[in-house]
Amino acid sequence: MSTSTQILTPDAAATERSRQVPGGLVLSWRQFRFWFTLFHRTWRGTVLSAILGPIMYLTAMGVGIGTLIDQNHSLPGGVNYLSFIAPGVLAATAMQTGIGEGSFPVLGSIKWNGNFWAAVNTPQRPEDVMLGTAMQGLMRILGLCVVFFASMLGFGTVHSAWGLLALPVALLTGAVFLFAMMSFSVTLDTDQGLTIVFRFVMTPLFLFSGTFFPWQQLPGWMHPIAFATPLWHGVELSRELTLGTVDAGSALIHVGYLLAALALAYWLARRNFRRRLYLDR
Amino acid sequence: MGREVSVVPGSVDGVSEIPSSPEVLIRAEGLVKTFAKKQGPAFTAVAGIDFEVRRGEVFGFLGPNGAGKSTTMRMIGCVSPVSGGRLSLFGMEPNSQGPRIRARLGVVPQEDSLDLEMRVRDNLHVYGRYFGLPRSIIRERAERLLEFVQLGDRAKEKVDSLSGGMKRRLTIARALINDPEILILDEPTTGLDPQARHVVWDRLYRLKQQGVTLILTTHYMDEAEQLCDRLVVMDKGRIAAEGTPRELIEQYATREVLELRFPLGEQEQAAEKLEGIGQRLELLPDRVLVYAEDGEAALAEVRGRGLEPMTALVRRSSLEDVFLHLTGRTLVD
């Protein structure tokens, strides 16, 4: 307002700068920082459960069930059960985190907390809100996967240097489900839809995507269904990497499939956020 | 808001300004908003409205629920795409320049949308960061704004613990963090108790005095009369009338109103006998309104015709009467 004065006060200069709207990544980063502020008081609990979770899981599965299984049967390639399921659970954990971070944080921001509605009254666009929120989900997926991977190393289930690449693969798998879930949650008005996804999508995927047993054990008619799910590709590729049995051809197919799914999910999330937050439905 | 107001009439850098033609900040021409429906024709929420808002004025949208006020506000706030006609703010189009326009607006939505889990001060911080303001500036402004809305001593409390009126004031403070040129308020006092409303009005009045342009919607006529320099009356997506509160009352109502209540069932008979008293009669379910320049004289005439109402009240005309006249309905049911 007081542009007639040549030298602006720091306050007026800040106002002037705030009116130069930056690009999408900077805007998304601002949204990410919102989540950081919201969660920075609870991070200790989050980290603790992130560390304890995998350790308990791998102990129960490896020492408990694994011992039983390894005594009686051998798995393809003669690996022990713990080495077999650990990379699968890594990918499945990424999926679960992705679905979790794409559900209540999104619905809550619309229905209960309203922070998304507040955000779009600022230079934030729906796509910035979406990407910034996804960034925080991706951070969590990455954090959990790193901790889980470290536990896998500790339990001696990583048999190849290629195994390190299981980490980005798990992140990619989680990202697919994160964006897909966000695109769904943003259309909801109650949490009933979320419960349906948890029960009828997440749990079956978790159980039947080759996480806990070789997918070849499934009846033949279920194979195409398994191949169609992003989790199956994530699980298979992670396992091939940590066991060192990976080959370029199948790796390319898995990565290609996951990237295509990610692109679709990202596009859907962007579109649905815009429809919802710009009130055009 | 503490900014240095250095308005020098005459010339700035040799360019003369004409103080008598205030700058138009918002201009709408034939503005339309339709919502597509899955079945049937699209729903028209705003059916072609024209208005202008000038810098420094308080502009109001008065109307009942469903009149299209909030939809209009959302289009002004660039969070609801314009379906037809033209809308410009600061010379920019919302559909293409939304973020740049929003950077210069402050919005107080109907629902506070505060972060209840966060502290009062943190709410201002996260919001200020959306505008890319540096931390030091946000801290300084947050302190000043919380004082302004009388929440200075609550800065460290969680929002959860605040009353409805305090939350609304916090939302107002939050909307001012980017030093906006226009403050948009959608029903700023709906749901607040009378005392809390007066505090909000007082703060808005101060903002007005500081030269902030305010746009507000309301279905309270007293709010509109107290705050608005100019307003439009909206009904069914259209503008029914436009002017200052005074002009509207002069144009659409008489100076005074006589409100009469009759025993149950007797109102209709009484109304027939009232014919011809004052300039106009308005029959409501529970009372009869007699529009007259002199209410007491009208009441004397009523009694002269042998009618004895249960209660009789003479008051000045208000925007409620304007609205009633224009639409045939009361504002708040």
Descriptive account of the structure:
The complex is a heterodimer of chains A (281) and B (333). Chain A is mainly alpha-helical. Helix content of chain A is 73%, strand content 0%. Chain A is built from 12 helices and no strands. Chain A has helices at 10-18, 24-39, 43-72, 81-101, 104-111, 115-119, 126-154, 166-185, 192-208, 223-228, 230-243, 248-277. In chain A, helix 4 packs antiparallel against helix 7 and helix 8 runs parallel beside helix 12. Chain A starts with 9 loop residues before the first helix and ends with a helix. Chain B is α/β, with parallel strands linked by helices and 333 residues long. Chain B folds into 2 domains: 20-244, Rossmann fold (3-Layer(aba) Sandwich), CATH 3.40.50; 254-316, Alpha-Beta Plaits. Chain B is built from 11 helices and 15 strands. Chain B has helices spanning 69-76, 94-102, 120-130, 135-148, 164-175, 194-209, 221-227, 245-252, 267-274, 295-304, 319-327, and strands at 11-12, 15-16, 24-35, 43-54, 58-62, 84-89, 105-108, 182-186, 213-218, 230-235, 238-243, 256-261, 280-283, 288-292, 311-316. In chain B, the strands form 4 sheets. Chain B has a 6-stranded mixed beta sheet with strand order 7-8-9-5-10-11, with helices on both faces. In chain B, helix 3 (120-130) crosses helix 4 and helix 5 (164-175) runs parallel beside helix 6 (194-209). The longest helix of chain B has 16 residues, at 194-209. Chain B is globular and about 75 Å long. Classes of the chains: A mainly alpha (281), B alpha/beta (333). Chains A and B meet through helix 1, helix 2 and helix 6 of A and helix 2, helix 3 and helix 4 of B.
Task: Name a few traits of the molecule.
heterodimer, A: 281 residues, mainly alpha, 0% strand, disordered N terminus, B: 333 residues, alpha/beta, Rossmann fold, Alpha-Beta Plaits, four-stranded antiparallel beta sheet, 11 helices, 15 strands
